[in-house]
Design goal:
The complex is a heterodimer of chains A (about 200) and B (about 650). With about 200 residues, chain A is mainly α. In chain A, helix 2 packs antiparallel against helix 6, helix 2 packs parallel to helix 7 and helix 4 packs antiparallel against helix 5. Chain A is elongated, with a radius of gyration of 20 Å. With about 650 residues, chain B is an all-alpha fold. Chain B has a two-stranded antiparallel sheet. The longest helix of chain B is centred in the N-terminal third of the chain and has 35 residues. The chains are: A mainly alpha (about 200), B mainly alpha (about 650). At the A-B interface, helix 2 and helix 6 of A face helix 7, helix 8, helix 9 and helix 21 of B.
């Protein structure tokens, strides 16, 4: 509040602009979170409706999922290192860490796709029961977000390469990093609620 | 091969019934006349440069209102067709078959909620909220333009079935499953419903984010949250609801689409699907949605009452708290739409009580408005008429709502015309009257001249009388047990006289609409006499502190706020000269404004293409639409030069020439 009170209008440039976009992006992330919440609720309601087909215990491979999780968590770590490098103005390091993040993200997607293919091949595709519809949609929506994140990261790499670490590019990078960590957080919930609780309970 | 190229599209999809031929002809004729006039007067460039590509909220707001007005006529025609059928349909009468009738009430509901009421409010917010907080633009001008064009894409898509397909969804405005599933609604109409709402809903979500950031981050120096005008406050409440619940709508429609397109089983009756989950999800969005529509109207009335009573709003803080209270409780009542689901007495009574609680904050507002008028010098301009009409209808409909909130009573009234009468009293008497009041009130701010008072009052009386004439019989019919959405009924029920009365009522409303059209025409014709300055009503809030019509830079110099009713305070303290009038050697700073861009149009066109292709399962076209849209976003993300600067000296020159002319 005090900030707005004392803000003179001449002193508005980059900082205030950046503050606006970051704040707006946070609100967007919250709307995305509500979207995931609705999908989680759907999964919670439908997870027992296997219609006589296989349930979580028969379908999930916890070791594979744990590996998947570690890959994604590591990508969050490298993304953090990339942001650190960006703050220090080190262009090559920033690009290097983002490329590492990109590779890890792609690896995560490949692992997820492999799981989906395995399930569909064994006759447990999204059409098999309400439980599987909810499972594929919740996990798949997260995967779709990862895909968007990877595309964004690719575009950002081009922008770093062409424009350098200008305030314009950095502001975009900070939002990309937020997005990436956010997806990590959502995955933690998927890992816990879908996989761990699915097998333990 | 043919299926690859055209998906489910066949020759049968082209117009061949009287209403699709009529609708398509109307579309083509309207387009041809517009194109002819634009070419004749060489206005294409003007239209493109000054309007379509504009990112100025003052222009986007006007475009929203124009589109919403067109859609209002479209939805109104549906209303007349519904009532005509019901008035004729005693026994086996009526001029429509059941399927066509179902499509009409479905389209009527969706159009009125998504494209009329939402459109009008986004328009008014675009026009007024930035001015009320002393800002020159929204936080994200490009997203604002994009939100508008997505809304337009949705509006075109919902009318597209006239030209391609010939049938719309026929499962009610919320398309409840299992009826909306592929088994029972195999046609493309349901997919038009899905993609039209999905696309326009995305636009609303973008708008919600944009307004929240604008209101929180861009207020004029000195304006604290509790200095904000009440229309800004209620817009804030409404937009908080938008960002909270529109994601749920997106998910719900997405899941229905997955059921239909991929054969999944979220809401099917077999394979473990659960249709009631759809009902829960859609009302978790749907109930807050009706408050999204009505809360901004509360704000408009607060402005109108305070201005025309020449008093500050009574109980400002309690007004703010009330609108925030409605905002919160709105999210906790959704189950009252389906007490009959059978969740049990415990669950039902919780939601019954939470529903009744809403009457408290709304009641606080009603009393505050009355107390604001008390001892005021009330000026009876048209907006005040709309306010008085609103307060009587809204109180009436609100009490019917409290009645419906009682689960035991609701078991009798569920899905009857009583309910239809109730929510029309709230949406028409609440939201729509608010929109009319707002448009009349702010019209001089937007155009520089006032709307004609005489025709305004005529329109008001026709609307009010027509409203009660058409909806009072519906309350009675509902209490008699008449179901909503009936296309015919037994003559022995004795329904017909009431339906005929309702039809007579809607004819009076139609005359009211005619009076409004005449009002606009007369006002434009006589605009020279009705020219007013920046402050025609002796206003209290910042939007009146600048010229009418508002120049593109909004404020010559940024207003500095010292409390509530900022402009009133400026006038009282004699500060207002420094704000609106030219002070020689005054302080005119450089102003940064957003450049025009056609990107939002291209992007929305690709999204539209994607939606249309998905309706007909033309996958290659959908791929083009999707890739095109993504390419647009990427291209935009490279653009650093989205703003231009107007120097203070230029603004001073423009202000000077305005002073001299």
């Amino acid at each position: 509040m005090n900030e707005t009170l004392t803000a003179t209008h001449e002193a508005r440039p980059m900082n205030e602009e950046n503050g606006k976009t970051i704040f707006g992006f946070w609100i967007y992330l919250m709307t995305d979170l509500i979207m995931f919440a609705a999908l989680f609720a759907t999964y919670a309601v439908l997870h027992d409706n296997t219609f006589g087909g296989p349930g979580p215990e028969q379908l999930f491979d916890l070791n594979g999922v744990l590996f998947e999780t570690l890959v994604l968590l590591t990508s969050s770590f490298t993304c953090g290192l990339a942001m650190l490098a960006a703050r220090n103005g080190n262009k090559n390091q920033t690009m290097g860490w983002f490329i590492a993040t990109f590779v890890l993200g792609t690896g995560f997607l490949a692992l997820e796709a492999a799981e989906f293919v395995r399930l569909i091949a064994s006759g447990s595709g999204p059409q098999a029961s309400a439980f599987l519809s909810a499972f594929f949609t919740l996990v798949g929506t997260h995967g779709l977000h990862i895909m968007v994140g990877l595309l964004w990261m690719f575009v950002s790499l081009v922008q770093i390469k062409r424009k350098g670490l200008t305030p314009f590019v950095n502001s975009k990078l900070s939002r990309l990093a937020l997005f990436w960590h956010f997806l990590d957080l959502v995955w933690i919930f998927i890992f816990t609620i879908v996989y761990l609780m699915g097998i333990a309970i | 091969m043919e299926h690859f190229l055209l998906g489910n599209l066949t020759w049968d999809a082209l117009p061949h019934q009287w209403f699709t031929i009529g609708g398509t002809s109307a579309l083509i004729l309207g387009g041809a006349v517009t194109a002819f006039l634009l070419t004749r007067y060489k206005l294409w460039g003007w239209l493109w440069r000054d309007w379509l590509t504009s990112t100025d909220p003052k222009k986007i707001g006007i475009m929203y209102i124009v589109v919403a007005a067109v859609m209002f006529f479209r939805g109104g025609l549906d209303a007349i067709m519904i009532w005509l059928q019901q008035a004729m349909a005693s026994g086996s009468g009526g001029y429509l078959d059941a399927s066509h009738f179902q499509q009409i009430f479905t389209a009527h509901g969706d159009i009125m909620v998504f494209f009329v009421t939402m459109g009008f409010f986004f328009g008014l917010m675009n026009l007024i909220v930035p001015l009320q907080i002393g800002a020159r633009d929204l936080a994200f001008p490009f997203l604002n333009s994009l939100g508008f064009w997505l809304y337009v894409a949705g509006a075109i898509l919902i009318n597209m079935f006239f030209a391609v397909g010939g049938q719309f969804a026929a499962a009610g405005w919320l398309s409840l499953p299992p009826l909306s599933e592929a088994v029972y609604s195999p046609g493309a109409g349901m997919d038009y419903w899905i993609w039209s709402l999905q696309i326009s809903g995305l636009g609303s979500l973008l708008g919600g984010i944009n307004f929240l950031v604008t209101i929180f981050k861009m207020r004029a120096p000195g304006m604290k949250l509790f200095d904000m005008p009440l229309f800004t406050w209620t817009s804030l409440s409404s937009m908080v609801l938008v960002v909270s619940v529109f994601p749920i709508l997106t998910v719900t429609i997405f899941l229905l689409w997955l059921d239909r397109f991929f054969g999944m089983h979220f809401f099917t009756t077999d394979f473990g699907g659960n249709p009631m989950m759809y009902v829960n999800l859609i009302w978790m969005w749907g109930h807050p949605e009706v408050y999204i529509l009505v809360i901004p109207a509360f704000g408009i009335f607060s402005e109108v009452v305070s201005t025309f009573s020449h008093k500050r709003t009574f109980g400002y803080v309690s007004m703010v708290m009330a609108s925030l209270g409605v905002m919160v409780i709105a999210c906790l009542v959704w189950l009252h739409h389906f007490f009959t689901m059978g969740a049990g007495a415990d669950v039902n009574i919780v939601f019954g009580i939470s529903t009744m609680l809403i009457a408290i904050p709304v009641g606080v507002q009603v009393f505050n408005w009355i107390a604001t008028m008390w001892h005021g010098r009330i000026e009876f301009k048209t907006p005040m008429y709309w306010f008085l009409g609103f307060i009587s209808t809204f109180t009436f409909g609100g009490m019917a709502g409290v009645l419906l909130a009682d689960p035991a009573a609701d078991y009798q009234l569920h899905n009857t015309l009583f309910l239809v009468a109730h929510f029309h009293t709230m949406i028409v008497g609440g939201a729509l009257f608010g929109i009319f009041a707002g448009i009349t009130y702010w019209f001089p701010k937007i155009t520089g001249f006032t709307l004609d008072e005489k025709w305004g009052r005529r329109a008001f009386w026709l609307w009010l009388i027509g409203f009660f004439a058409s909806f009072t019989p519906l309350y009675i019919l509902g209490a008699m047990g008449a179901n909503r959405r009936i296309d015919h009924y037994d003559a022995a029920t004795g329904y017909q006289p009431f339906f005929i009365m309702a039809l007579a009522g809607v004819c009076i409303i139609a005359l009211g609409v005619v009076a409004q059209v005449i009002q606009v025409y007369v006002s434009i014709r006589d605009r020279k006499q009705n020219m007013v300055g920046g402050d025609p009503w002796n206003g209290r809030t910042l939007e009146w502190a600048t010229h009418s019509p508002v120049p593109f830079y909004s404020f010559a110099s940024t207003p500095v706020v010292r409390g509530r009713d900022a402009f009133w305070e400026m006038k009282q303290s004699g500060r207002h000269n420094s704000q609106t009038d030219l002070v020689p050697g005054g302080n005119y700073e450089d102003v940064e404004l957003s450049k025009n861009t056609g990107m939002a149009i291209y992007l929305s066109a690709f999204v539209f293409l994607f939606g249309f292709a998905m309706v007909w399962h033309i996958l290659w076209l959908a791929a083009i639409g999707l890739i095109g849209a993504i390419a647009c976003v990427i291209m935009r993300s490279f653009d650093e030069h989205t703003e231009y600067t107007v120097s203070g000296s230029e603004i001073m020159k423009m202000e000077l020439s305005r002073k001299l002319s």
